[in-house]
Design goal:
The chain is an alpha/beta fold and 416 residues long. The chain has two domains: 145 residues, Leucine Dehydrogenase, chain A, domain 1 (Rossmann fold), CATH 3.40.50.10860; 153 residues, Rossmann fold. It contains 13 helices and twelve strands. The strands form two sheets. It has a seven-stranded mixed beta sheet with strand order 9-8-7-6-10-11-12, sandwiched between helices. The structure holds nicotinamide-adenine-dinucleotide. The site of nicotinamide-adenine-dinucleotide has 24 residues, from helix 7 and strand 7.
């Protein structure tokens, strides 16, 4: 988190903005400012040197009006409860924007996976799963990967959950390895949806995609898949960053070579043929499309004036504060918000869950066709709202999400 912005406070501000603009029922808006349930666990594990270490883990189940809780699990040293609450709220809005039958949740463990061995991570994951066992389930709450976790983490969760229940339950998590019931296309789905949204936005503002210059902040799972997809669409990747630094090459960076270099050395910093520039300069670089794909609050009041990109397609969750979003809208930058742009991940997670429940397998072509259709429809719905209301795509996406949540809640009623 930069600039000490509390992301959960930003979520509540965003709900207030939308509530006024779209006349959302106050009882609905008030409930959406509170997570339904928070589970905090202290996870004791034996480290490889035989020391006992206790980690703090969270699962925040935000809302289930539209379906079971759904959301990733983050392993990162800076995980804190308000961050997990914000991420869980965004999941609730995201599943509503792309109209999939899920609610929203998120989990996290305060740890540094980069400094832990594979066996330590396995013990941590299994113990955490056993401690949240009662509140998750294929029809209750379905976890997925996020920052610092991957398909291996999901395999451990699936195995722990299945072992305790006594039968194989692949539908307990999404983002699994393919031969354990993972979906074709899940790994690249978030990046693909970020790229599809950038492509549609380019079309709306008359920007030619072929040769369009792209800068990607955060070269992890989402950053790589976005760069790869945009490159395949004809764009030129001119800048990349990760925690070690930022690299620039105006002639274009090959996303595959950058990934292989990162796999070998731990970072993209130092890739042959590229210049090194200070980390945060990436956001201000002269480019056509900017993709923030690292963590929250990268684009704030302090740097949004310096952004030169014409389009921002948000891979990360919460990379732009509401205030910065307003300024970018006034400046005419086309921002595709996280709850729309990166929704490809949860969309294909939903496809994975449907395949698992039906013991079925879809081809990559089938998955990508369904993803493409859903992203185009959702983008157009949000865009139509934004034109109607003369509001940013973010405000429009929140209006669409909150309207759907409002409708669901008013029909369900309040128990008791
Ligand atoms: P990841 O751990 O694979 O990658 C994160 C990358 O960001 C790493 O390469 C890290 O070095 C880099 N990074 C961190 N801080 C940085 C900084 N200050 N400057 C530059 N780089 C920095 O995680 P991921 O799964 O790619 O997730 C990235 C973002 O996308 C997160 O906000 C996550 O919540 C969001 N997201 C992920 C998915 C998914 O399917 N994995 C889906 C939707 C949204």
């Amino acid at each position: 988190m930069y600039d000490n912005v509390n992301p959960f406070e930003e979520v509540k501000k965003q709900i207030n903005i939308v509530r006024e603009k779209a006349d959302i029922d106050s009882t609905v808006a008030d409930q959406l400012k509170h997570p339904r349930q928070i589970i905090t666990v202290s996870i004791p594990i034996k480290m490889d040197n035989d020391d006992l270490k206790i980690f703090t883990g969270y699962r925040v189940q935000y809302n289930m009006w539209r379906g079971p809780y759904k959301g990733g699990i983050r392993y990162h040293p800076s995980v804190e409860l308000d961050e997990v609450k914000a991420l869980a709220a965004w999941m609730t809005f995201k599943t509503s924007v792309v109209d999939i039958p899920y609610g929203g949740a998120k989990g996290g463990i305060v740890c540094d996976p980069k400094t832990m061995s594979c066996t330590e991570l396995e013990r941590l994951t299994r113990r955490y799963t056993s401690m949240i066992m009662d509140v998750i389930g294929p029809f209750k709450d379905v976890p997925a990967p996020d920052v610092g976790t991957d398909s291996q983490t999901m395999a451990w969760i699936m195995d722990t959950y299945s072992s305790i229940k006594g039968y194989s339950i692949p539908e307990i998590v999404t983002g699994k390895p393919i031969n354990l019931g993972g979906s074709q296309g899940r790994e690249g789905a978030t990046g693909l949806s970020v790229a599809i949204c950038a492509r549609i936005a380019a079309n709306k503002i008359g920007l030619k995609l072929s040769g369009a210059r792209v800068a990607v902040q955060g070269y992890g799972k989402v950053g790589y898949a976005t760069a790869k997809s945009l490159n395949e669409m004809g764009c030129k990747i001119i800048a990349l960053s990760d925690t070690k630094g930022c690299i620039v090459n105006q002639k274009g960076i090959d996303p595959q070579k950058a990934k292989e270099f990162k796999n070998k050395t731990g970072s993209i910093y130092g890739l042959e043929g590229c210049n090194k520039i200070p980390l945060n300069d990436l956001l201000e670089i002269d480019c056509d499309i900017l993709v923030p794909a690292a963590l929250e609050n990268s684009i704030t009041e302090n740097n949004c004036d310096k952004i030169k990109a014409k389009i921002i397609s948000e891979g990360a969750n919460g990379p732009t504060t509401p205030k910065a979003d307003e300024t970018l809208f006034e400046k005419g930058v086309f921002v595709v918000p996280d709850v729309l742009a990166n929704a490809g991940g949860v969309t294909v997670s939903y496809f994975e869950w449907v395949q698992n429940l039906n013991r079925d397998r879809w081809s990559l072509a089938e998955v990508n066709k369904r993803l493409e259709e859903r992203m185009i429809n959702s983008f157009e719905e949000v865009h139509a709202f934004s034109e109607q209301m003369n509001a940013s795509m973010r405000t429009a996406a929140y209006v669409l999400a909150l309207k759907r949540l409002e409708e669901a809640h008013l029909k369900l009623g309040l128990f008791p």
